[in-house]
Design a protein that fits this description.
The chain is α+β, with helices and mostly antiparallel strands. The chain is 24% helix and 13% strand. Keywords: Nucleus.
């Protein structure tokens, strides 16, 4: 039987004709690419394909000899720590109370009220930097007129930027505290924060994250969440523990707390990406929580404008009560001035050079229009000084171009009246996970 197998194998091998060089003379043959190896054993046929012309030639680096490597190591001096704890802490800012006050998890589509409650607790409750008892999002919803089950309420169609500000003021009135809220940075859309650049807005945001009396809400694509801190990361590895850095030597990353359980509790996003998101106009948009999708387009006919912005919520001091108050109403008639002897009043037609004063006190500064609309009275300001709350009426072009030299208080005051129309947050059409209730 073994002889028959060997005989059949030899017959099959004899039937296979080895390919010779005559193949190169046929039409369509590629003589330079295909070479036929000689059939030494008479059992195999080998094809050798030359692909050197269609493959990229990689340059081979010359290996570094051990002797040369030792010379390099002996000449290298590693960087030393030239910074202090306070300088590193100035780069890495994170108030844990902001994170503690985050209302997480939220109800379905309740990111707006959950973010407002988080800011309110930070400013006024004992969990944050206040003295009142903390409140839950359920208490706030009941006070605002909502009834359970809260998970069935479609907040998206009626929750907008002005809605969040109105809820914040209603909570302040209910608990008898004073606060104000405004659009901090909204470069696109109606009532945009004109005159404020991206670098200046970053200065305000970073200073505000160090201030216990102010909180922020970031309106991104179909969602509201709260910035909690930031880090100025050096661009070069050697500068990780160096001293003060210039603006070109670091990138700013924001730490943002998310009330939704379907996403991480903390997001870390570059300010450059956030600025791109805020400066997009319809139909283009960027989803800051899903940057891997890149620049997207909305299915809308509206062109121009953007709902995305950063809102600020600030705690104010309680108003001081005064017996009388100066007003900004112009005097149309002659000023009435009584003589020091108590005689008849002097009815000179000339306007009085000095404003009327309360008994035994200095002139009282008028309450600015912006302060009255936010429900608090401006503190007394010395004569001749500029009111910070009237700064929005000044020319913002006089600001210094270096963001580090900007006046934080004036920049905050300049944005107080930048409120937008009640542009609602679009309803999120994403399907929820089976185990998620957000």
């Amino acid at each position: 039987m073994q002889k028959d197998v060997n005989k059949s194998k030899s017959e099959n091998n004899n039937n296979v004709k080895p390919m010779t060089s005559s193949l190169t003379n046929q039409v369509g043959a590629v003589p330079d690419l295909i070479r036929v190896a000689p059939d030494l054993n008479g059992d195999t046929l080998v094809w050798d394909v030359d692909v050197s012309d269609i493959t990229s030639k990689r340059s081979v680096k010359k290996p570094v000899l051990p002797s040369e490597r030792e010379d390099i190591l002996t000449d290298y001096i590693p960087p030393t720590v030239t910074t202090t704890y306070s300088q590193i802490a100035a780069r890495k800012v994170m108030d844990q109370k902001r994170w503690i006050c985050m209302s997480r998890p939220q109800y379905s589509k309740s990111c707006g009220i959950s973010s407002v409650v988080s800011c309110w607790k930070l400013l006024f409750s004992t969990l944050g930097h206040g003295s009142l008892s903390p409140i839950t999002q359920e208490e706030a919803l009941l006070f605002l007129g909502f009834k359970p089950p809260f998970g069935e309420i479609r907040f998206g169609p009626f929750t907008g930027n002005i809605t969040l500000m109105r809820w914040f003021r209603q909570l302040n009135d209910h608990y008898k505290v004073k606060g104000r809220c405004f659009n901090l940075y909204k470069p696109q859309g109606k009532n945009k924060t004109s005159g404020l650049t991206s670098d200046e807005a970053l200065v305000i945001l970073k200073k505000g994250l160090e201030d216990p009396n102010i909180a922020f809400i970031y309106h991104c694509q179909n969602h509201y969440f709260c910035p909690l801190g930031y880090e100025d990361t050096p661009c070069k590895a050697e500068q990780a523990y160096s001293g003060e850095l210039s603006e070109e030597d670091y990138n700013t990353w924001l730490l943002i707390g998310d009330p939704s359980r379907r996403h991480p509790c903390l997001h870390c996003k570059r300010w450059e990406d956030i600025s791109v998101d805020l400066n997009c106009t319809n139909p283009d948009y960027v989803d800051i929580r899903r940057l891997e999708k890149g620049l997207q387009k909305r299915n809308t006919k509206k062109v121009g404008g953007n709902l995305h912005c950063i809102m600020a919520f600030q705690k104010c001091q309680m108003p001081q009560t005064h017996a009388s108050r100066r007003t900004q109403i112009p005097v149309l008639g002659g000023a009435v001035k009584r003589s020091s002897s108590g005689g008849r009043p002097n009815t000179s037609p000339a306007r009085s050079s000095s404003p009327p004063q309360p008994a035994g006190g200095s002139p009282i500064s008028p309450a600015s229009p912006s302060s009255s609309r936010f429900g608090f009275v401006q503190k007394d300001i010395k004569s001749g000084s500029e009111s910070a709350f009237n700064f929005q009426n000044k020319n913002l072009g006089n600001l210094k171009k270096n963001p580090n030299d900007l006046d934080y208080e004036k920049l905050i005051a300049s944005q107080m009246n930048n409120e937008d129309e009640d542009e609602v947050c679009e309803d999120d059409t994403e399907t929820e996970s089976v185990i998620s209730n957000d």
